[in-house]
Amino acid sequence: MNFQMFQAMMISLGLSDFHLFNALYPLQQMHIFNLLVKYGGGILDMRGSIGGQTHARNRFGSYIRARTSPVNPKSSRQVGARIMMMYLAEQWRESPMDNAKREAWATYAAGVDWRNKVDQVVHLTGFNMFIRSNAALIRAGGTLVTDGPPDIGLPPGDPDFYCRFGESG
Asked: Helix 3-13 crosses helix 76-93 at what angle (to 10 degrees)?
């Protein structure tokens, strides 16, 4: 099933994106604290929300503000993004994906560094990298790629190209 067929099926069922998401992924009521803290001689950096407060940083320094509830406008673009995520999650679980392909995505994800809010290196899971890569690809008009990237290294350098840095230029 391709994304357009999946999207048409969801729309024809008349299910909102929230109900559809809950049907595919039963969720439990839970409290989630999204706070990253970087310790050193005290607290060096703190970002995220806990206890009704949001800790953040801008160019003037760190600040704390009251946490607000996010607005869910359910715009057509937002609904489309949610349907895309559900479609890709379904593709991850079903054929033609198999354990070898999932492992290739996990290997690729482990080799790609990301920086979080406090500038620490983190690695996505294979599932997250599969969704991230394919969502961008499909939005750009491409087709679903189930095979994980085979090589995460850089291409070989050109022996005729080099840069020299120094005071003499």
From this structure: 120
Q: Which of 124, 93, 92 is nearest to 108 (CA)?
A: 124
Q: Strands 61-66 and 114-115: what pairing? A: unpaired
131: exposed, middle or buried (C-beta count within 10 Å: 0-12, 13-18, 19+)?
buried
Backbone angles phi, psi at 69, to 5 degrees: -75, 130
What gap in Å lies between CA 25 and CA 79, rounded to an integer?
Answer: 16
Give residue limits of the domains in the chain. 3-25+72-139
Q: Report how far residue 141's alpha carbon sits from residue 146's, in angstroms, rounded to the nearest whole number.
A: 16
Specify the pTM: 0.57
Query: Which H or E element spans position 71?
Result: none
Structure tokens at 149: 């990237």
109, amino acid identity: A
Neighbours of 57 (CB within 10 A): 13
Read off the pLDDT of residues 115-162 as tens digits, 9 standing for 90 and up: 887 788 888 999 999 999 999 999 999 999 999 888 666 666 677 776
| Closest CA relative to residue 88, chosen from 33, 142, 26, 150 | 142
DSSP SS3 for 100: helix
The end-to-end CA distance of the chain, in Å, is 57
The model's pLDDT over 33-50, given as tens digits with 9 standing for 90+, comes to 566 667 677 777 888 888
